[in-house]
Specification:
globular, about 50% helix, 7 helices, about 5% strand, 3 strands
């Protein structure tokens, strides 16, 4: 997760140099600050970085958007980080697929921190999906492909390929 925070720093245009550590069995990220106690937890540190970069719009503009962003950040930490079995992954993809059915981004029509951190959290899962699995979760695939092409998000992470045109071998 420290690597995700470093990716977020770069995306936000913040200077590198923050010191991240991991705490406890669940390897919760910790940001060592110069003044006072460190900040603990992915959501807390990520929101701090967004505010530091003066890009508060990534946290949502309206009260409702802010709540939805917070909700998906919590989902990211509790479900995506916690989920390790095939069944957990299937449930996560199913939940997201239903949510994204009529939305461009997790918070509706605006790109937020929730999209960025969910993308980073799901990248290792999406890389492993078969073409058939990607087609099964079409809304997630559409969203993921959109986010990976958002300027500055993907960085050094591998590009996940989605086949857009179906090829029919029995066509005459």
């Amino acid at each position: 997760m420290a690597a995700e925070l470093e990716l977020l720093e770069r995306l936000l245009g913040l200077p590198a140099g923050n010191k991240y550590g991991l705490q406890g069995e669940r390897k919760v990220p910790v940001l060592q600050t110069n003044n006072g106690p460190g900040l603990t937890g992915l959501m807390t540190i990520a929101a701090h970085l967004v505010r530091q970069a003066k890009k508060d719009q990534l946290l949502g503009s309206t009260a409702e958007e802010k709540a939805v962003v917070q909700q998906w950040l919590e989902y990211r930490v509790t479900r995506v980080n916690g989920g390790s079995s095939k069944e957990d992954t299937r449930i996560i993809l199913k939940d997201l697929n239903m949510h994204l059915e009529d939305k461009v981004y997790l918070a509706g029509n605006i790109f937020t921190l929730a999209d960025i951190l969910m993308y980073y959290g799901l990248h290792h899962i999406m890389v492993e999906l078969t073409v058939q699995e990607k087609e099964k979760y079409l809304n997630v695939s559409r969203w993921f492909n959109h986010i990976q092409h958002y300027p500055g998000v993907r960085q050094h992470l591998s590009n996940v390929v989605f086949i857009k045109n179906r090829l029919y071998t029995n066509a005459h």
